[in-house]
Write a structure and sequence with these properties.
By secondary structure, the protein is of the alpha+beta class. It has a domain at 3-73: RNA-binding S4 domain (Structural Genomics Hypothetical 15.5 Kd Protein In mrcA-pckA Intergenic Region, Chain A), CATH 3.10.290. Helices cover 21% and strands 29% of the residues. The strands form three sheets. The protein has a four-stranded antiparallel beta sheet. Strands 2-5 form a two-stranded antiparallel sheet. A two-stranded antiparallel ribbon has the order 7-8. Strand 3 and strand 4 (49-50) form a beta hairpin. The protein starts with a strand and ends in a 13-residue tail after the last strand.
Length: 106
């Protein structure tokens, strides 16, 4: 069953524990969802950002979005293929569904 839920944070807590208490999902499922990009946090009225660390400390006033779909989470995308490797850059064929690191996170 897909879950698209948004929760206001009313008191400081750890992100994974907060989502377990709000969603009813197990901690293992929450952590898997976080690792695969299904958890977002809006802090201080700024743009929503993806969070992957279970021990992130939430603050009062934050807003947490959980996008959980077991059917999507169980998919295994094809691996990227290296096309060219140069000194300053490399070129990859990245299939759909494979996450790419943000600039500076390689």
């Amino acid at each position: 069953m897909p879950l698209d839920a948004h929760y206001p944070v009313e008191q400081a807590s750890l992100l994974a524990d907060f989502l377990v208490s709000k969603s009813g999902l197990s901690k293992a499922k929450i952590k898997e969802c976080m690792e695969k990009g299904g958890v977002w946090v809006r802090r201080d009225g700024r743009k929503e950002s993806r969070y992957r660390k279970a021990k992130t400390l939430l603050r009062t006033g934050d807003s947490v979005s959980l996008y959980y779909d077991e059917g999507i989470l169980c998919l295994t995308p094809n691996r990227p293929q290296l096309i060219a490797d140069h000194l300053d850059y490399s070129v990859w064929d990245k299939p759909p569904g494979v996450l790419a690191p943000e600039a500076g996170q390689t």
